[in-house]
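Input sequence (160 aa), recorded before submission:
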Amino acid sequence: MNLKEKLDYLKGTNEFKEWVKNHPSDYLVSVFLMSDHPLEVQFDFYDEKEDKITSFSLEGVKVTKVEGSDILKDNKDPLKKLELREWDLNKSLKFAESLLKDKGEEVYKSIVALQNSENGPIWNITFITKAFKVMNIKLSCDDNKVLSSDLRTIFDFRKK
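Predicted structure, C-alpha cell format:
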C-alpha cells in the first residue's frame, strides 16, 4: 500500500478540501491500518490550538471524517508533524512478524500506526496472537531498527 498516494487522493477529495479551509494550520501526525480492514487507512491531523485530532478514514473512494477527538498522550507538548516518505510497510511488517514467530507466537490481528517520535518516524506495530498475547514493536521507519519490543498476555492489561 502506498500511503503517499492514499494521502494525495484524500487531499483531492471535496470532504478534505472543505475541512482544510477552516483548519489550514492542522497537520498530519499519524496513519493507522488494521488487518481486519486491509483496504482502509486512517490519517490523523492535529489541531495544536485545540489539542484535538481530526481523523479521515479512506476505504477505496469512501471518506469518513471524525472531528475533535481527544488525544491520548502523557504530556502537554504538541504532537510532532509526520512527513510521509517511501517506507516499505510490507518489509517492516514481515520483519516484525518474524520477531513474533521467534517467540513461538502466531499473528491473529495486527494494528499498525505510523507516527513521529523523539527517534524520528516509527512503525508502532501491535500484534494480537492466537494465544491472546499482545506484542508491541516499535521500528524505525528508515532502517527497521527495533526501538522497543514487548510481549505480554492480555490479562496483564486488566486493572488491579
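Checked by second reader. Residues 93 and 125 are 8 Å apart (CA to CA).
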